[in-house]
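Q: What structure does this chain adopt?
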Amino acid sequence: MDPERVKIAQDVATALAHELRSPVFAIASAARLLRYRVAEDPVIEKNIGRIMREAQHLNGIVDALLEFGRPDPVYLAPANPDDLWASVLHEHRGALEAKALLARHSPAEPRVICRLDSLQLGQAFSNVLVNAIEAAPEGTDLVIGSSANATEGWWRSTVRNDGVPIAPDTLARAFDPLVSTKPGHAGIGLAVAQRVLSEHAGSISLESTAGAGTTLTFTLPASHG
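A:
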């Protein structure tokens, strides 16, 4: 996506987030008040609970839109991206276990160092991992393999799952904001990941074919560890 389209998309995302935030807050507040007033009716209690869950879900979408539309500045420091991958996988071990998924991570050898904003790049890794977990069939493997060439100055990591291939028209727009195959999702995760990689002078790409699964590739500038 060219810079002008990115700026337009960020402005739209920010405007949508601000339009949604106030009504979502009002809905959640009204539901909490009703729960307090009519706590003895189980039917009302059940439906108020549903309203509050949906309001919480909408609030998550608002936060995602703001994350894309008004990103924090990037602060780069030397770090090993495979150490960051290990941390992200540890954080998501519950989601992996819930689908009986085995995440096999092979760090790059020899070790390399990249200039990273660990918080933001970690979020990009997390966004991609969550998508892979949701797409992977239960009981399968997620394969995360890294390689590096310090002489040529790059580190590369691929994330592969064996889920249903992404339709070509969706694949072509996978990194556009508000594009998602999952109902109720903002479609911001990959757009944020692409922005973060671009701000690290890196790149991100996605391939998906029948029989070969879906593979996402991160590439970053690197040096000797």
